[in-house]
Structures are given as structure tokens and as C-alpha cells.
Amino acid sequence: xxxxxxxxLHPFSRKVRMALTEKNLSFDLTIEKTWERRTEFLxxxxxxxxxxxxxxxxxxxxxxxxxxxxxxxVYPEINLIGHDPVQRAETRRLVNWFDxxxxxxxxxxxxDEKLMKAILNLGEPHGPSVRAGRANIxxxxxxxxxLIERRQWLAGDTFSLADISAAAQLSAVDYVGDVPWEQHHVxxxxxxxxxxxxxxxxxxxxxxxxFNPAVNHIQTVS
Amino acid sequence: xxxxxxxxLHPFSRKVRMALTEKNLSFDLTIEKTWERRTEFLxxxxxxxxxxxxxxxxxxxxxxxxxxxxxxxVYPEINLIGHDPVQRAETRRLVNWFDxxxxxxxxxxxxDEKLMKAILNLGEPHGPSVRAGRANIxxxxxxxxxLIERRQWLAGDTFSLADISAAAQLSAVDYVGDVPWEQHHVxxxxxxxxxxxxxxxxxxxxxxxxFNPAVNHIQTVS
Lengths: 222, 222
Fold this sequence. Notes:
Structural class of chain A: alpha+beta
Strand content of chain A: 5-15%
Largest sheet of chain A: 4 strands, mixed
Number of helices of chain A: 9
Low-confidence stretches of chain A: none
Order of helices and strands of chain A: EHEHEEHHHHHHH
Largest interface: A-B, 23 and 23 residues
Strand order of the largest sheet of chain A: 2-1-3-4
Shape of chain A: globular
CATH architecture of the largest domain in chain A: Up-down Bundle
Mean pLDDT of chain A: 95
Number of strands of chain A: 4
CATH topology of the largest domain in chain A: Glutathione S-transferase Yfyf (Class Pi), Chain A, domain 2
Radius of gyration of chain A: 17 Å
Oligomer: homodimer
């Protein structure tokens, strides 16, 4: 069976998990604690990070975008990047926006500070970082709203890897309770549509041991 | 004419410049000072970063990897990523290694501290960052050596975007004099082969106004 090495809430692992789900590709999951730097894991991925996908034929793939490009090339029936080069560039531009810009400006400041520090016993969240993350997220939710008022999905009129990358980041921030959905209705409606897609229950239902989701995370389920 | 917005020494701008050169695609260059946040530039690239490529037909492309994927799709005669999905994944894995890991662990600590701080009048380089960058670079040069002892080029037996990404980062660090080539002969030989390719003179010859290259940068020219 295809195996995805991942970690709870990790947005880049979720991105690949969503892409596999969207393409109807079955897979098993293994939790990898990358800070333990297991020799067997480092042999598969010298960069030592997640996610890592091992295909049925033994092909080893690391880095969420590398994996998603591979999946779109090998399993093209359900296309997630686009058909012509300009559309593909627009999808990839937005994937990069959420993978890099949103991740750095929002997710690292909120999820890494509140959740990963707790898991790794690294002390309390850094106040200025949390405040920065909470301030920065509005700009990104506004940008989602701006795009969705002009298009059906983020990169155009079909669901794509751009929606997946954005939702993967937001779902992790939502778990720690820091997405001000009530102030961003268009973005909220877009996110509700994604959560409703087949197989995406884990975005809401996955639980981190000894770290409960914020109350408003659970509310958004209803 | 095709226009590339770039900045002196900026490794991601250099990456696209090398890819265009490799594909024999002509282009003009414009220096963009992104910190000035020009309205016209932000309208073309809301992320506000470099590089930005405007194609002859007006297509606007941002993010170095998005641009390079586009160029490989639209101008496939000279292929820079690879022909089969596994090879393409390996090229992209290494591109990501140098674009993200090397950039964060080495380039930001050395080029941003020494050069960009001087250009932006932000004070002296942060000593611990410079020391970290100088310590980290050995591991990356060792990895280049490890790969080149097994393959002709970084991602396999043909020159690829992986070589371009790595050389783009290293060329910027080389300008500030912090590549310990003398301790890494295999990596040095690989880099000399890249510098000798047609059209890559700018890797050594480009000069930043009011910021001379380190003496050992000039020595590696001969």
C-alpha cells in the first residue's frame, strides 16, 4: 500500500493527503516525529522533513509540491494544476502564496507557537509572534475573498491545488482557534465548500493527543 | 521584448536568468527595488517579490519556480526538469533543497546580512547569523560533492534546474566571499563547469554599486 508519512495538523502533510483524496488514490498513514531524526527516515529523505510519500512500487517522494506535481503527472485523470501553461502558472503562484507567504506570516506564528511548542515542551507561545499571526491573517482572508468574488475557486473556475494549499494551512490555524471567520464571510463560505468535499472529514475531525482544538474550531463543524 | 525584473545578486532572479539563458530565450533586465513597493509592480505581483517575468505577449509570471515550470512547458526544446515523472521529482526535490533549505540556512545568513543590510542601511551584519551561515555551508557543499561523485550533474546525468538553483545561491554567497571552495574540491569543480557555460558570465561579472565583491570571488574567475 502507498504510505504517507505525516504529522497531526501539519499543513504540508494535509496538502498531500487532500491531493491523494481528491485523486481517489488510497494510502496508509504513519506519524513521523521528525525531531527524533530516525536513521531510516533520513535515508529516505535527507532533508528530514514532512511529508514523505512511498509509492506502491517503492518510489520515494518528499516535499509537498514535488509530491503533488508527481501525482498530477502520473495520475492525470483528475487534474489539480490546470491544463494550459498560463492556468498552471496561476495555480502554482497561489500554491506558493499559501505554502510560503501564508505559512511564514500566519501558520508559523500561530500553529508552531501554540501547538508545536506544547508538543515539544518548548515553553509558552511567543506573544509578539502570536499577535503578528493574528494581524497578518486578515490580509490573507481578504485576498481569498478578493479572488472568490471573481472566480469560483482560488485559481479559476475549477477546484485546484491552490484551494488545497490554502485550506491545508487554514485548517491548522483553525484548530488553534485563530481564524476570524466571522469577519470574512466570503472566505468562510469558500472554506465550508472545501470541508464538505468527499473524504475531507479529517480536516475537522483529526485530533492531536493532549491538545484539544479551540472551541470555535468545533463550532465551525455544525 | 521579454522583460525580467530582478535585483543584483538576488539568487532567485539569477535562477530565472540562467534558465532563460540556457533555453536561448532573449530578454531585457530591469532592476526592481521591491522595498519601495511601487504600485505598478504590486499590480503585476501582489506578493511584491522578485523575480517577475513579463512575456512578449504580456503574460505576467512571478516566483522563480513558477516561472521555470512555465518556461519548461512553453519552450520544451531544451528541457531543464527531466522527461519522466521520477526524474522530474528528483530535479524538483533538489531545486527545493537549494531554493529553501540552502537559502534559509546559508544565503539569508550571509548575503542578506552582509549585502542587503548595507544596501538598505540597516546596520552591521548580525554576527551569530554570519557564523551560522559559514558553519552551515559545509554541509551543503558536502552534499553537492556526494551527489557529483555519483552523477554527472546534481539531479542526474544531464544539466538541470537543480544545478541552476544551486549555482544561483552559491554565486551570491561567493560574491560576499563566504564559499570555502578550497575545502570542497568536487563542489568547486562542478561550479567551475557551470560558470564556463555560454552566457553565464554575469554570475561572476555582475557588480553591485558601492559594494565590491570579496577578493576570493575575483580569484575564482581565473
